[in-house]
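Now for a chain:

_____
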Amino acid sequence: MMIRFAKIVATLIAYFSEVFASEEELALKFGMFIYEPTPVEGFDLQVYRLKSERGIVGTPNPEMTTNIACFGDNNMAAKHPDWVAMSKDGPALRTNKKYNLRWDIVCNQEKQMIDYMLDIIEETADNTKGITVSSMHVADHGFCTCHRCKEAQAKSGLDRLEWRAQTVTDFIKSAKERVKNKPFYVGLLPDPVNAYERFGLDFDALAEYATAFVVPHWSKTYATPWYFETLSRSFKKLLKKPVYPGLYIRGPGDNPNELESHTQILKTACRIARTGVEGLIFLAANATYMKDFQKACVADVKLREELEGYGGKPVLDLVDKWESILA
């Protein structure tokens, strides 16, 4: 009898040890994207946007991970118009109304641009905690019709879509080599269905080099959290590395009257947290905006009580953490 009881106890101990270990492994990591090299307490991952799609390069902070926008570069597109990616419907410029381009995009076959970007990535990786890259993809469907692209595709022997995807993957491979053993986060565009055909993003091929994927869910409204939850579930199902969706608080130059309140952002965060993703990132222009968001979440006790039971406990635990920091 005693032997049998001992075995039951041992089994229960092993079971609960495994459960608690799993919970520890599956604990969400929370990060922030910010446009200045100023850390904000209360996040696991502090990301400074050293080079946004404006094309201006800042000064890295050794205590932060660094985000670098690659071929999305308004500055380089203006300096070198002949470098701009081309389609049969015109260039990859914000003025091209046939596409939803939020910045100007340089051709990813332009060798000078490739070398420039890889050098920035390597130098920054050597001096910071890690690298995240974004805008390293093809502009959109219909692009890659310039003379550089036509020549490169002809030499490859691949069909157009295969060649475009291989080009993006090769750049990420080269970037990973420059980053060496530092964490390397690869940014995707939030299209889980057509990313290969539109942007040359081969999720499985990219997973070989990525520490994790950052999937922006940037929006000035989160009135329908279900959409963002569904998007997160889709990427979680498809991607073979950890998934970090991103939520938008307030970017540079935004009119605060046109932005979402902390209420819907926090609700959406809780909905996303229950999808099984491994992380969640919040974006703000500066440390002041980020801290204002933290304070608003902490102060809204009624909202925090309402969100109990949503399945987003890690988010509420995060707000509890912010509360202890701000006390």
Notes: Confidence is low (pLDDT under 50) at residues 1-25. The chain has twelve helices and ten strands. The longest strand covers residues 243-250. Residues 27-326 form a domain with the TIM Barrel fold (CATH 3.20.20.80).
